[in-house]
């Protein structure tokens, strides 16, 4: 039994194996209608619980459709409608769900909730985003980069804006897949030092640059995300926006990179805030390929967890 909790705690060769499997499954499906079962049905007879304590479109739909394509059943559970939202502990929830389902994915707030769930579950647990990380997203991002440009190893990725949960997973990925990462954002929103240290410890370059135009010079990929994550207080909005506004990804910033520099955003995007329409809908943007690849990456992660 294997949990998929974070990129830095999963062996690099396993991460690569998951991406190879995702690519093979994607190509085997081709243009098949979304509801058509895969030729192989590795999740036949299995039930997957998807717990959401925060909103979701991509994570919810990719896991749900992905599990079904592989022959599995799914239960989409909202934390607030479970006893979990009314005082039952996460440990007891883990013990109970393990008696009913074969795999649990959770999107939650504190990382400790995810870890406690994994510690007490007797079935695999997948991190569908916490305040601290979003590993499933970055598996899809690496897959997308490589589909467009070949191996990501040795490339330069520039994260622009808030050094948040998604940025932390990008740093973990930098270490595991061997690419350099430059963070361009205000000091107040620097990425988690432990994530940067992990990447540096693996021998890749992690740089912090306050000037976004200088940061993106020579970039192979520019990535940004919302300026106000789901775990951030609404009351912080004004201050965050003020500090982050100089880090908007707009055409000027893209022009400071190379003509073939790709743009990614995990979505949902706040158009005209962290990114302009021109960039989102421009020729360098691969955001919808990135969204689609959530499906293929999630399917491979579920198979890896279950060893099927
Ligand atoms: N990128 C992502 O995780 O999207 P959702 O919040 O819609 O799941
Ligand atoms: N950083 C964002 C990502 C959403 C997919 C959040 O945590 O809200």
From TrEMBL:
- Residue stretches making up the Aspartate/ornithine carbamoyltransferase carbamoyl-P binding domain: 2-147
The catalytic activity of this protein is classed by the Enzyme Commission as: 2.1.3.3
Sites where the protein binds L-ornithine: 165, 225, 229-230
Q: Which GO terms describe its cellular component?
A: cytoplasm
> Which compartments is it annotated to reside in?
Cytoplasm
Q: In which pathway does it act?
A: Amino-acid biosynthesis; L-arginine biosynthesis; L-arginine from L-ornithine and carbamoyl phosphate: step 1/3
Q: Which domain of life is it from?
A: Bacteria
Q: Which keywords are on file for this protein?
A: Cytoplasm, Transferase
The protein's matches in NCBIfam families, at most eight in alphabetical order, are given as:
orni_carb_tr (TIGR00658), PRK00779.1 (NF001986)
User: What family does this belong to?
Assistant: Belongs to the aspartate/ornithine carbamoyltransferase superfamily. OTCase family.
Give the protein name, as stated in the record: Ornithine carbamoyltransferase
Task: Please give the organism.
Answer: Amaricoccus solimangrovi
